[in-house]
Design a protein that fits this description.
By secondary structure, the protein is an alpha+beta fold. The chain contains 19 helices and 10 strands.
Length: about 750
């Protein structure tokens, strides 16, 4: 059922009087008819008087209203100018100077131009003010106020222009403004102090404190931070001059950059002070403009009021004549108006009050229905609409609350996801860095430095087990305290009583969120700034090889997400350490294998060299074998050949012989191509000789195995021990060419029985 139908049913069920049942149109017709009659009576009496006073009122109001109009326009332009001023000062850095200038400064200039135009019109009204009765205000006073207002508007515009220019100098251009100048100098000092320099940690700390105070000053413009910066600059300058860990050129560069930084910062502080003075002057001038504008506005009202009173005095005769008639008619009209207004406006006022309360959120209120006319139908319809609005707002509030809760949850989840993604990206980058490092000491140093820089922890240390597995040795650290512990060869026992040792022993991470509140925690004197600590095991291939210890100078610095992320990072570090160790072991094994193989090659060719045939000689007359006996009888002719070319025969970094070549002609010079050809032949000769040696050894081993297999087969053909011994002796005698083979049994002396 619709709202209209429900309203009709409700109205039919109520008891309503005669006046309530009259339609609203007829009620209004009756009321307006009576009012029209009385109006005609009053008009007939006062028409003449009104005609005479109309001209007086118009003339009286013209000048005052015009002054009020100009002053209102002046106030409006001033308000718009102040709004543009505030918006420029608020958004010039966020939107950029050029954009803010276009959006706010140019409209500000237009508002000032409008104010000057209104002031010009007001200055022309001085003679009018002098001819009218204005009480204590004279023409001289009025013109002085307008002139003062003009001067203050000009001063306000000038101060605002100076303020805009000061902000442009402060931070408009990326290379020439004051903020950029001292920021560039700070970046140059940062590069000089933190890249490639060691032993200047105190200078770095002072510089970092200087940068923190600088950031706070740029953000808040507080004089306290400016005082801190002026305190740190001499300390940093003295530290650069007195340090012995910087060469003269680096000192000079840093001092020059520090001078540029100080000069730019002093200029910025002076400019901020100037901006503060501009703001004070701007507020003062704008306040003066507002006061003078209000004064002129009051003057316009006073002029209008005084002139109206004069016009009324001139028409006193007309009012005297018509006063009795008017009062009589007004008395009757008042009685009729009160009666009819209660009947007509009462329900409307009640409905209006009900609507006002409902608009304030009181949806349980219902409008009273006392008639069947349009107002009654409207009230009943309004009640139905209120019920629907109440239900709609309840649903809307519930959905808004659910949406707000969901939004908060999504925001928290999004923040956690972003943080987790950044940490995982950092882990991936660190893993990529450490995967390329093959030296263990460099790897450990790289890990501690990278974790400290990427996660912002002031101390990161890596402990590795010694050969006994009972003690853990601090192998790398990024902090000064950790470096001192390494120089002292810091070692701890792997036990449950020690913080790091218990982690290595159990393989479970340990976290202390607040060291000052933990009664069991023992503070390390070399690391006094520790307020929270986490230690994670380094596990590779199911074995704990050490631990990574991370400490922060902030309490409650580690969350569950940090523990999981650092655990993942610890696994990557452990794998990298284990890979480096395996690489070292593999390289050592390779070197050992190569050494053994070279010994084997040397022994094999040494055995070949001990045989009768030592080489082969080929000449124009033919070829012959080189034997040890021939060398003893004929001697070695190698020394007689002055032009002989000797090329060593290499086999896997082992020299197994020499290839000697004598030229046909004396005094011959061997070319590089010929030597390369001979070397290539020597290489292939070495491979061929080694293959022949291997084939010979394989054939010899195969013959020996075949002979052993045949003898074993013949021995196993009989089950008689005597026959087996006889067969073994005969076969060995035949195979070895021996004249006698004996098999002598061994007699065991058994202990006597008890």
């Amino acid at each position: 059922m619709s709202i209209t139908e429900a309203s009709d049913n409700s109205l039919q069920n109520k008891h309503i009087g005669f006046w309530g049942r009259i339609p609203l149109a007829r009620k209004l017709l009756a009321v307006f008819g009576m009012v029209f009659i009385f109006t005609l009576i009053i008009a007939a009496v006062t028409l003449n008087g009104l005609g005479r006073t109309q001209t007086a009122y118009e003339n009286a109001l013209t000048q005052g209203i015009y002054i009020r109009k100009l002053s209102d326009q002046l106030e409006k332009s001033l308000l718009q100018a102040r709004e543009a001023e505030v918006n420029f000062l608020r958004y010039w850095r966020e939107q950029g100077f050029d954009t803010a200038y276009k959006n706010y400064v140019i409209p500000h200039h237009q508002d000032i131009a409008d104010m000057r135009a209104d002031l010009d019109q007001l200055s022309r009204l001085g003679p009018v003010v002098g001819t009218l009765s204005t009480g204590n205000i004279t023409r001289v006073q009025y013109e002085a106020d307008v002139a003062s207002l003009t001067q203050n508007v000009d001063a306000y515009d000038s101060i605002f222009g100076a303020l805009v220019e000061a902000h442009r100098k402060k931070g408009f251009d990326d290379s020439t403004d004051y903020e950029s100048q001292f920021r560039i100098a700070a970046q140059n000092m940062d590069a000089g102090l933190f890249y490639g320099q060691a032993g200047i940690e105190q200078l770095k700390i002072t510089f970092l404190r200087l940068r923190i105070s600088e950031k706070n000053y740029v953000t808040t413009a507080s004089p306290a931070y400016a005082v801190e910066i002026t305190t740190f600059i001499p300390l940093l300058e003295e530290g650069i001059k007195t340090t012995e860990n910087l060469n003269p050129t680096a000192k000079t560069d840093l001092l020059n950059q520090l001078h540029i930084y100080k000069t730019s910062f002093d200029a910025l502080v002076a400019l901020d002070q100037q901006i503060a003075n501009y703001n004070k002057d701007l507020l003062k001038s704008s306040t003066t403009v507002e006061d003078l504008t209000t004064k002129i506005n009051t003057l316009g009202e006073r002029l209008a009021t005084q002139n109206v009173e004069a016009a009324r005095a001139n028409s006193a005769q007309t009012y005297t004549i018509s006063i009795l008639t008017v009062f009589t008619v007004l008395a009757i009209s008042l009685l009729l108006a009160v009666t009819l207004s209660q009947q007509l406006t009462g329900p409307i006022i009640a409905l209006t009050n009900t609507a006002r309360e409902i608009s304030a959120g009181k949806f349980e209120i219902q409008a009273q229905v006392n008639s069947t006319d349009e107002i009654g139908i409207l009230a009943e319809t309004f009640n139905g609409m209120t019920s629907q609005l109440r239900d709609a707002f309840q649903n809307l509030d519930r959905r808004a609350y659910e949406l707000e809760q969901r939004t908060n949850e999504l925001e928290v989840t999004n923040q956690q996801s972003q943080k987790r993604a950044q940490e995982l990206q950092t882990i991936a980058e660190i893993a990529r860095y450490i995967s390329t490092e093959k030296d263990l000491d460099k790897l450990l140093s790289l890990v501690t430095r990278s974790v400290s820089e990427r996660f912002g922890f002031y101390h990161v240390g890596i402990f590795l087990l010694d050969n006994t597995g009972k003690f853990a040795v601090l192998r790398a650290s990024n902090s000064l305290g950790g470096q001192e512990m390494i120089r002292q060869k810091y070692t701890l026992e792997v036990s449950k009583t020690d913080f790091v040792g218990s982690v290595i022993l159990t393989g479970n991470p340990r976290v202390v969120l607040d060291t000052s509140a933990d009664t069991v925690y023992a503070l390390n004197p070399d690391l006094p700034e520790t307020h929270s600590e986490i230690t994670l095991p380094l596990t590779a291939r199911g074995t704990t090889i050490g631990a990574i210890d991370v400490q922060s100078n902030i309490s409650n610095a580690f969350t569950d997400i940090d523990v999981s992320v650092l655990s993942l990072l610890a696994d990557q570090i452990a794998i990298a350490i284990d890979n480096v160790r395996l690489l070292d072991e593999t390289q050592n094994s390779l070197v050992e294998s190569q050494s053994l193989f070279r010994e084997y090659i040397a022994d094999a060719w040494k055995t070949k060299s001990n045989s009768e045939i030592l080489g082969y000689r080929q000449s124009l007359t033919g070829g012959q074998l080189i034997t040890g006996k021939a060398i003893k009888e004929n001697g070695n002719h190698q020394d007689d050949e002055k032009d002989m070319l000797a090329i060593p025969i290499h086999l896997r970094d082992q020299v197994i012989g020499t290839l000697n070549i004598s030229p046909n002609n004396k005094d011959r010079t061997w070319s590089a191509d010929e030597i390369d050809i001979i070397k290539a032949v020597a290489e292939r000769l070495a491979l061929a000789l080694d293959n022949a040696r291997l084939f010979e050894e394989t054939s010899t081993r195969a013959s020996r195995e075949r002979l052993v297999s045949d003898i074993t087969t013949k021995i196993r053909s009989s089950n008689d021990p005597q026959e087996m011994i006889k067969t073994a002796a005969e076969e060995l005698k035949r195979a070895l060419g021996a004249t006698r083979v004996e098999v002598v049994p061994k007699t065991n002396n058994l202990p006597p029985e008890n």
